[in-house]
Specification:
Strand content: under 5%
Number of strands: 0
Mean pLDDT: 94
Structural class: mainly alpha
Distance between the termini: 14 Å
Oligomer: single chain
Low-confidence stretches: none
Number of domains: 1
Order of helices and strands: HHHHHH
């Protein structure tokens, strides 16, 4: 989620060369959300659940549009849909009390 919350210029530095940025950003959120919910559902507040649900729903919407195209970073850089997803990721991080900062490089 931290990677998604970052500006495009940071996002491209987080993942190794040769990976699809769109796929990595979306899969990171899906993997985290599904694992966290499966293991900590009883610990989540309604606000935290809503933040994860909203973020996943937005990424689902993006995945059904031309803004989600493997190996094409133009939409990630320029589209309002990806900017909205960044903002939702920031909101989710804040709901959990986690810092909005770049994750370690992979």
């Amino acid at each position: 989620m931290q990677a998604l919350a970052m500006p495009y210029e940071v996002q491209v530095t987080v993942f190794p060369d040769g990976v699809c940025l769109a796929c990595e950003l979306v899969e990171d959120v899906y993997n985290f959300s599904s694992s966290y919910i499966a293991n900590c559902d009883n610990l989540l507040t309604e606000q935290q659940k809503a933040a994860l649900d909203d973020l996943q729903a937005r990424l689902d919407e993006i995945a059904r549009t031309p803004d989600y195209e493997c190996w094409n970073n133009d939409a990630i850089r320029n589209s309002q849909a990806w900017n909205d997803a960044r903002e939702l990721a920031k909101q989710a991080l804040n709901c959990f009390g986690w810092s909005v900062e770049a994750p370690p490089h992979r």
